[in-house]
Amino acid sequence: MNLNCLIVDDEPIARDILQNYIDKIPQLTLIKSCMSATEAYEAIYEHPIDLIFLDIQMPVITGIEFLKSLSKAPIIIFTTAYSDFAVEGFTLNAIDYLLKPITFERFYQAIEKVLEKVSAKKIVEIQNVQEPDYIFIRQDYKLLRLNFSEIDYIKAEKDFCSIYFKGKRLLASMHLGAIAVMLPSQQFVRIHRSFLVNLKKITAIKGNVIEIETEEIPIGSNHRDELFNRLKI
pLDDT tens for residues 52-85? Predict the structure, then answer.
């Protein structure tokens, strides 16, 4: 994880302290240290910014005025010598409020909040990504779409694979291993060196054989434990 940072503060000493602290955190990259909101506007225009250390009391444009002017604000940590602004800072959804003089310990606590927020956001984004529930298999001069839910099992046939679905058989010019990586591992499992099956299609297990409707498929000795673990048996 790497976060692009911006310092916006009219005090040179305050900027130097923050820059020194930022340099100590591997996840943070300082893009620019700005002495005014005007410089900050330019930096935001030129670079993607994830986090801003924003002083509140600045001439011409205050930190709060600057933040309110942004249509899409990055994560904000307010920095100020005046505790009176804390309430207003948090109402503007700042993640933290650092009171000067800022110690490294207090700075690090604020960064931990930022990293937790960013990590949680990334997890949600990953969970919300819609994975395809189908594959396309080349058949003659066209690509045939197969939904994962339709596939019963796949059998290796030397340099080809036979895909069995909805009572039909489709011959695909792919090795079993190649097609296996295209399928969701939580739904399909190798039960034999020559067979890959849809766990949701298994109707019965009898000795070293599984049944999918009327079809019987052997369970390889090297794959039995994995199959039973996946079925929670």
Answer: 999 998 988 988 899 988 888 899 999 988 776 5
Read off the pLDDT of residues 118-127 as tens digits, 9 standing for 90 and up.
887 765 555 5
In this structure, the number of other CB atoms found within 10 A of the CB of residue 145 comes to 11
Stretch (H or E) spanning 85: none
Q: Say if CB 172 and CB 179 are below 8 A apart.
A: yes
Fold classification of 134-230 is OB fold (Dihydrolipoamide Acetyltransferase, E2P) (2.40.50)
- Tell me the whole-structure pTM to 2 decimals: 0.56
Beta bridge partners of 8: 34, 54
- For the chain, how far is it from start to end, CA to CA, in angstroms? 39
Map out the domains of the chain as residue ranges.
Answer: 3-128, 134-230
Quote the tokens at residue 144. 């045939």
b/e per residue 14-43 (b: at least 16 CB within 10 A): bbebbeebbeebeebebbbbbbbbeebbeb
Q: Which CATH class is domain 3-128?
A: alpha beta
Which residues, in sequence order, are CB contacts of 153 under 8 Å at separation 6+? Answer: 164, 195, 196, 197, 198, 201, 212, 215, 217
